[in-house]
């Protein structure tokens, strides 16, 4: 009886430590989707972020509450799967080299309070509708993303939220997109023939000038 009780307690403890499947899959997608040239995610092994104490991951029970990966040298785009972390309260990714768009799926993080994406290289339009959905937000930092643009109505964000949008193009004119490349099949029709294949008649005056002078 004692043995069965010990086994039952161990099973319950293990179950409490295990990350819920949804959060585990979201962080696995993040691990697979970003570049980690400095090895900051080397502790991200196994399939249990909470139980295996993954770097930068803080949990309560089986739920991931915080993802704190500031200044870790991470590169690439932020996977949209982060929007599956339903109980996330802090998302701190500042000071890395993330590029591309900020995922619209972050609007699913309805318990999020801190969103720090500053000092990266995000591009495109700020996902304003996603941000308006974050009713618990208290601190939004997007500063130092120099080409991040788009309109953001700050009056639709939580009234007491702290905002930093400096050194971005938010609520300013977005840069014009680069022109599309000229299609190669058009180039084929407009290409000039090479000079080597073009012959020109030699003027008669030039031919006459090459004759040797007559002896006197």
Automatic annotation (TrEMBL):
Keywords: Leucine-rich repeat, Membrane, Repeat, Signal, Transmembrane, Transmembrane helix. Residues 1-17 form the signal peptide. Gene3D superfamilies: Ribonuclease Inhibitor. It is found in: Cytoplasm, Cytoskeleton, Cilium axoneme; Membrane. It comes from the Eukaryota. Its main location: cytoplasm. InterPro entries: Leu-rich_rpt, LRR_dom_sf, LRR_N_plant-typ. One of its GO terms (cellular component) is membrane. The keyword Protease does not apply. Residues 21-59 form the Leucine-rich repeat-containing N-terminal plant-type domain. This is Leucine-rich repeat-containing N-terminal plant-type domain-containing protein. It comes from Cymbomonas tetramitiformis. The lineage of its organism: Eukaryota, Viridiplantae, Chlorophyta, Pyramimonadophyceae, Pyramimonadales.
